[in-house]
Specification:
The protein is α/β, with parallel strands linked by helices and 297 residues long. It is 32% helix and 21% strand. Helix 2 packs across helix 3. The protein is globular, with a radius of gyration of 19 Å. Bound molecules: adenosine monophosphate and magnesium ion.
Length: 297
């Protein structure tokens, strides 16, 4: 399957979104945060990133629909007028032709519900708004699904180091994968060459490092510590926000990622926990193409 145009388009779209996120993060103030009905903070960058990616995908592939996290309903409320103006201002810096109604339309184009056949894009414009607000890890996560299978994924991780040690220079990574074509890392600033990535080769669980959420409300850290103990893992865990964990695994920085949702609808009340496709689709294919395995619990 030749996905060259799809992959190129997805990388360009994610690069634009990351540029907007970096810009918003450098000027972040609390007025940029809107509280959604589920009380999660959603920032100007979530909306702006979704608008830019959606518009870019629509231009290249007008007939492929989009399943995305945000909708512009809250942004259109009177008391969020300032936030909308901020979205427009930041989007215009990346794409000078952007205007208010196009931005609203582009965000709302992400309301597709998915289908059993054909293709659709899947987008979390910012996975981990909490990490974004803490100025730690967050990711723009995009995937292409065909006939129920993820066939392409791109993760933009603006705060992840390109090299694996602090002295290694640039922040900002884009990980990408297309089905049966391997997984790769490129620098967000496009200055470095594309590197193939592979999961680590550790076979003894005792030598593995596992990673988990920073937010203890998202995943049971005590249960994962217990699992680690039972498996004999002696290395300290790596706590990281978002699908950046998939990126860390894909390049062998950690070996295992356990997610044990809890709290409202979590482990204690699993029938109420609804997982969202955009929280995993992009990261999943990057792991699989890097030689790893993704399963449910
Ligand atoms: P992480 O940084 O890995 O914890 O992941 C951030 C993701 O967790 C975001 O996509 C959130 O939407 C999602 N999330 C929010 N609340 C919960 C919860 N109670 N359990 C699991 N995931 C959650
Ligand atoms: Mg999000």
């Amino acid at each position: 399957m030749n996905l060259t145009k799809e992959l190129q388009t997805a990388i360009e779209a994610v690069r634009k979104a990351c540029a907007l996120c970096v810009d918003v993060q450098s000027t972040l103030i609390t007025a940029d945060t809107v509280v959604k009905k589920d009380r999660s903070p959603v920032t100007v960058a979530d909306f702006g990133a979704q608008a830019l990616i959606s518009a870019h995908l629509e231009t290249a592939f007008p007939s492929i629909p989009l399943v995305a996290e945000e909708d512009a309903g809250d942004l259109q409320l009177d008391h969020n007028r300032q936030a909308l103006d901020n979205v427009i201002e930041h989007a215009k810096k990346i794409d000078s032709s952007a205007n208010g109604s196009q931005i609203i339309d582009a965000i709302n184009r992400g309301s597709f519900d998915g289908s059993d056949s054909g293709r659709y894009w899947v987008l979390d414009p910012i996975d981990g708004t909490k990490g974004f607000l803490r100025k730690q890890q967050y990711a723009a996560a995009l995937a292409l699904v065909e006939n129920h299978q993820v066939i392409l994924g791109v993760l933009g991780c603006p705060n992840l180091l390109y090299g694996q040690s602090a002295g290694d220079g640039a922040h900002g990574c884009i990980f990408h994968a297309a089905r049966d074509s391997g997984a790769y890392l490129i620098a967000l600033d496009a200055g470095q060459t594309e590197l193939p990535v592979h999961v680590d080769e550790i076979s003894a669980p005792s030598r593995a490092r596992f990673c988990e959420s920073v937010e203890s409300a998202h995943s049971s850290q005590s249960d994962s510590a217990r699992i680690a103990e039972l498996v004999g893992i002696s290395q300290p865990q790596v706590r990281m926000d978002t699908q950046c964990k998939y990126a860390a695994l894909a390049r062998g920085e950690a070996s295992i990622y356990v997610r044990l949702p809890k709290g409202e609808g979590g482990v204690s009340n699993p029938e109420r926990y609804i997982e969202k496709v955009w929280r995993h689709a992009g990261g999943m294919i990057i792991i699989e193409e890097a030689g790893g395995v993704v399963t449910d619990l």
